[in-house]
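Fold this sequence, please.
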Amino acid sequence: MNYTEAVEYINDIPKFTTKNKFEHTKEMMRRLGNPEAHMKIIHVAGTNGKGSVCAFLSSMLVEAGKRTGLFTSPHLVKINERFQVNHVEATDEEFLDAFLTVMETVKQMQADGMPHPTYFELLFAVGMVFFAKKKVEYCVMETGLGGRLDATNTVEHPIACVITSISLDHTEYLGNTIPEIAGEKAGIIKPGVPLVYDGRNPQSAQVIHKRAMELGCEAAGLTDSMYEVFLKTDKSIDFCLHFGYYENARVTVPYLAEYQVVNSSLALMAMELIDPTHEIGLETRLAGIRKTRWAGRMETVLPGVVLDGAHNEDGIAQFVKTVQGVPGEKKVVMLFAAVVEKNFEKMIQTIAEQAAPDAIVVTEIKGSRNEPAEELGRIFRKYTKAPVTVIADNEAAFDEALKEKGADGVLFCAGSLYLVGELKKILNNRK
């Protein structure tokens, strides 16, 4: 089997299917020799921001000279993006080598009457085998969906846990209220393992803190009073921290979205748990934050063209705050697509009424989760008088949005990480 065949094999496993029992993943990892047991793992869960927190933590550790694995999802263009060591993605050969190692175990388990691993189970196993072969010291690990029953939660002894902001998303799997979803995310908390969490929402904070206390964990929640923004540019935000070791530290986060102030602050708090003796000094940590790059999250890919993975109500609400900061004389154009299981009408209403773009282009995601562009366009027209152009083909829609933007406007592309991935493919091909 070659690399292309391996990726096709994985893609043929349904991404949204009935989960195997938790014990199935544990048995697979046991048969693989528990490769994750030899790494210092930082486990990150949450609704929004968990990938960014992982990126900030990885960047700080790499800046400090630590050999660091980064396991994230989903990928935008290529599956290898999910597995990075010191910011370098797995090569096709490395990916295939880890995949074939895992498949040997999968075949043994099937011969013993056990089910095939799910899409994410298999990728988790591939990642851990890859990192073990690369001899990483630290592994920054993002959960897939939820926390309590996530494949990543088979890691028994992380060195720290982080829970980012909690909002309503994947309610069909995780619950219909903030406390229910927070309970699922809090499932990653392990006895005695220190925890940092986003404490700005009292409903989620209460659930998370209670679980941490039950398990005897040191726990610290981030609140609004612990950071203060004092400078914004079109490329970065400068802010001060007001807690502990970081009191009055000036942090530069290389994004124009204010939610990255929260995510970078959570990462800095987590670093205190990982490195309480400050072997990694303040300047190294701040340099790591400043140098962080995380694709598809308020990422400027061309002059005046920003890709953002906002794809649920809370993510869109944060996205809108950034759009509202664009100077009034600039034309704002929106390129939007969404998948069927999201509450896209609410997202569209928020964009139309609060971001108030001057022009909108809607397109659609290919595949079974596609929401037709015509339907998205119809809904946009309910909430805005701005011109709405419907173009199903992603590349043609992108070109139309660029044309609408003109020389001095700003184009924001959001609504789905799948859209971000398609646009990055288009840009890569043009390069």
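The CA atoms of residues 110 and 116 lie 7 Å apart. The first helix runs from residue 3 to 11.
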